[in-house]
Amino acid sequence: MRIVKEAEERRNEILDAADELFGRKGYDGTSTNDILEKVGIARGTLYHHFKSKGDIMDALIERYSDRLLHAAKEAAADKSVPVVERIIRVVMALNLSGDSSAEIMEHIHKPQNALMHQKIEKVVVNGVPPILAEIIREGIAQGLFDTPFPYECMEMAVIYANTIFDDDMVAMTDEERATRMQAFVHNLERMLGADSGSLMDTMKMFKA
Prior knowledge:
Layout lengths: L6 H19 L6 H8 L3 H7 L3 H25 L5 H13 L5 H8 L5 H28 L8 H15 L9 H19 L16
Helix pairs in contact: 1-2, 1-4, 4-5, 4-7, 5-7, 7-8, 8-9
């Protein structure tokens, strides 16, 4: 008897299978035939949901991105938490440590998944600065920061952090990383017009 599944359920099955295969074999090393075999469907069914393997990857990136940005927005929305601590929580949410998130980051950082990595970075660079900028505006209203460019400051900070603290982009010793972190926080305080040393607690966000 032929099993007919709801479109959303079937779509998620395809994504789950592709996710596992991309993680094990890499994006380039996975064929549409591999995905068909894994899910147990005909090619026509696959193409009913996705136009191509690239389309499947884009849908996976969207799924990862939604999880990333949802966690960041949740952290930012809790106004019972002080501004500086909320900034830390947003960044920690993006760090994706804990539950299945660590596996996601390990997955996209594999060399064979460089394109997925690049697309996730694009989501972070475009999606995170607006979330952080809202917190900075609150800090400005509270007298903690003094800058006419809250969004631009966060954009620069996110792009720098997303590049320099990415092991795939810049190889550093522990000592070099510690120096970069101190410089990053020091210059972030200057960009935001914050008191010297007021953001040093953010150092803990980088500690494993």
